[in-house]
Amino acid sequence: MPAVLLLLALALAAALVAGLALGPVRIPADRVLAIVLGRESTGPLASIVWDVRMPRVLLGAVVGAGLAVCGAVLQALVRNQLADPFLLGASSGASAGAVLVLVLGAGASFAGLSLPAAAFGGALAALVAVYALARRGGTMTTGRLILAGVAVQYVLSALTSLVVVLAAKADQVRSVMFWTLGGLGGARWNELALPAVALALGTGLLLTLARPLDLLLTGEEDARTLGLDTGRFRAAVFVLTSLVVGVLVAYSGSIGFVGLMAPHAARAVVGAGHRALLPVAALGGAVFLTLADLVARTAAAPEEIPVGVVTALIGGPFFLWMLRRSPRTEGVAG
Questions:
Q1: Residue 285 DSSP SS3
Q2: H or E element at residue 231
Q3: What's the pLDDT at 334?
Q4: How far is CA 136 from CA 131, 146, 276, in A?
Q5: Rounded (5°) CA angle 87-249-9
Q6: For the chain, N or C: smaller number of CB within 10 Å?
Q7: How far apart are CA 260 and CA 319, in angstroms?
Q8: pLDDT for the residue 139
Q9: pLDDT score at 107
Q10: Contact, 78 vs 84, CB < 8 A?
Q11: Contact, 242 vs 88, CB < 8 A?
Q12: What are the DSSP E strand ranges found in 21-153?
């Protein structure tokens, strides 16, 4: 466990340095380190590192870590490794809520908190809808969970498309496209505090719930026998994960598959125990999204690809591979 965390921390540091060094203007790694350590604090390169790239790579690390942690927890709640915030509609719901606020022009009110609040409300509503649909009849299967997630995503996508049609201003359309495809290009220093706090508090609280999350993996009846009120616990953790996802998506847009791949890779290394799984998944998600954003802004330079497109190109085949090897994929209709 300590060795895995150390290796992932070193990988994250390397990914952050690469994110600061590479781009339309390439900066040697030694110059990047000199700027970060304060030995070179003025000049155009220092401005590029501190004002443009540093907020972006830090936001990518925070969002990647948060989505990975929430993905790992949701997989435990529904006892299915195919679950993640994107596939279960949380990211789409958060995007839909944020888009509605943007188009209605309320994003600047309440000290800017209406946007994260709308994203949280959308994420929570989507998760509740998917969970209720998947549990219909008292049982939950992989096929039913996937179908419910796809159905909710289609509805939310249609709602977002309707907003695009009705949006009268070009800047509103651009904002909607940002929310649907995801992007870190708008990161600013003053926007890092709330996602970082949401990640720290959410991960800390979820770590304290590691034992009941482990109990859920043993099965519904066994967890109840051991004293866990599974209904209340699931509801509380759904709200908590929705809050974290809503805040993250409010600043990054909808970025899929991070919460699917990072927990699966972490589980393969440290096992299913959440006390070890959550921090390892967080670091893995941070590394993955930082590198994905680096690819997004360098692969087609000077044009920038939405980072959600990059994660989908990687995560789509990964999801199909997971679906094929899952022992519970039979009976898609549930």
A1: helix
A2: helix 230-252
A3: 39
A4: 9, 14, 33
A5: 90
A6: N
A7: 8
A8: 65
A9: 44
A10: no
A11: no
A12: none
Structure tokens at 200: 């720290």
Q: What angle do CA 162, 168, 172 make, to 5 degrees?
A: 80
Q: What's the pLDDT at 330?
A: 41
Angle made by CA atoms 52, 55, 56, in degrees to the nearest 5: 80
Q: What is the pLDDT of residue 332?
A: 39
For residues 123 and 91, the answer to whether their CB atoms sit within 8 Å is yes
Residues in the chain: 334
Mean pLDDT by 10 residues, the chain (334 residues): 92 94 87 84 84 92 95 87 78 80 59 66 83 72 75 85 71 68 82 91 94 87 81 84 84 86 92 93 96 90 84 87 63 39
Residue 244's CB: how many other CB atoms inside 10 A? 26
**Gyration radius from the chain CA atoms:** 20
CA 244 distance to own-chain centroid: 9
- Angle, CA of 145, 151 and 152, to the nearest 5°: 90
Q: What is the pLDDT of residue 39?
A: 79
Rounded to an integer, what distance in angstroms lies between the CA atom of residue 221 and that of residue 301?
Answer: 54
